Automatic annotation (TrEMBL):
It comes from Amycolatopsis carbonis. Residues 12-323 form the Amidohydrolase-related domain. Pfam families: Amidohydro_2 (PF04909). InterPro entries: Amidohydro-rel (IPR006680), Metal_Hydrolase (IPR032466). GO terms for molecular function: hydrolase activity. This is Amidohydrolase family protein.
Length: 345
């Protein structure tokens, strides 16, 4: 919980990781990709304040104590949602797995939500594995990486018939929140494999699922906004938006937030710190203090209210995941105004 100026904010970090990208986990023969991947992640961290930058050795593999402190002791986070990333082509035990995340979550009840992941190129065995992970860890969501390499394949699409089989399985299992990485690429993955256009197709075909587009499709922000405004079950995941732009590119950040608020709306935007690329503390504090700038350049965009920030920082994610919001941290119910001269029933 974060408190500022008498207002209390329930914070749900919708996008966090517990990864192992140390050299001991690199697949022999794939070292250049494993090394390049984590170095690209590390470069993104430089977009945050200088005093939050880590040395590459710490960034490759951080321990449990560091993560718990950064998220919950210092970072104001009430609940964090694990978003796994397989990358087993480059990392022997996987980069950030459901199993490692789940084991940590079991040590700290109530702190984490464990999402899983899937890849339609895994066929029938993959469907069986998805079902087993959901039953074991109680997953309510999944993270998808459409640009991930798989043998000779360098990506897949939500339009693929095999992807529809997996989405049908998610619906059957109650895995309702589908987080899709659609945004900045990470070397050596292909930028076009993260194109946002296939979300439109899947969201229309599966109206009972929620599609949270992580990183809002950047740099294709207009494609995302015009798609999300027509699909009632498409949401904006703000990881990268706040962490990557608020400090380093404040004018562009304001424009992206302005477009999202206009087209997508404050009820469909979810905070995500994208730990451990960026720590949540400076993001939560900075966002609560932030306001749309004045001036002609930003005159099309709305100002943010305290209620808007409370929704984005946690209440919207709480609604999607069925989290109980502690007393005093939800929005106040509007006051009933009695009609003058008309007796109450």
């Amino acid at each position: 919980m974060y408190e500022k100026d008498g207002e209390k904010y329930f914070v749900v970090d919708g996008h966090t990781h517990f990864w192992d990208a140390s050299p001991a986990n690199w697949v022999p023969g794939q070292e250049q990709y494993a090394k390049g991947w984590i170095e690209c992640f590390h470069a993104y961290q430089s977009l945050g304040p200088a005093d939050t930058h880590w040395p590459i050795e710490k960034f490759q593999k951080y321990d449990e104590e560091t993560m718990m402190y950064d998220l919950f002791d210092a970072g104001h986070v009430d609940v964090a949602i694990f978003q796994p990333t397989s990358l087993r082509q480059w990392y022997k035990e996987g980069f950030n797995t459901t199993e490692a995340n789940g084991a940590l979550a079991e040590k700290y009840p109530g702190r984490f939500i464990v999402n899983t992941n899937w890849d339609p190129r895994d066929g029938d065995p993959g469907l069986k594995g998805l079902e087993e992970r959901v039953q074991r860890w109680g997953c309510k969501g999944a993270k998808l990486y459409t640009a991930e390499w798989h043998g000779d394949s360098r990506g897949w699409s939500l339009r693929d018939p095999e992807a529809s089989r997996y989405l049908e399985k998610c619906q059957e299992l109650g895995v309702k929140n589908i987080h899709v990485h659609k945004g900045p690429t990470i070397w050596p993955l292909d930028k076009d494999a993260f194109d946002v256009r296939d979300v439109d197709y899947a969201a229309t075909n599966f109206p009972e699922l929620n599609f949270i587009v992580e990183h809002v499709g950047l740099p294709r922000i207009e494609d995302f906004c015009f798609m999300a405004t027509q699909e009632p079950n498409v949401y904006a995941g703000l990881s990268v938006v706040i962490g990557g732009l608020m400090h380093a590119r404040p004018r562009f950040f304001a424009k992206v937030m302005g477009e999202l608020l206009f087209w997508v709306g404050e009820d469909k935007m979810l905070f995500g710190a994208d730990y451990a690329i960026w720590e949540p503390k400076w993001q939560v504090e900075g966002f609560v203090d932030w306001q749309m700038p004045d001036g002609e350049e930003f005159s099309d965009y709305q100002k943010l209210t305290v209620e808007t920030k409370k929704k984005i920082l946690g209440l919207n994610a709480a609604r999607l995941y069925g989290l109980e919001v502690p007393e005093g941290l939800d929005l106040k119910a509007p006051e009933t105004v009695e009609a003058v001269g008309v007796p109450s029933p």
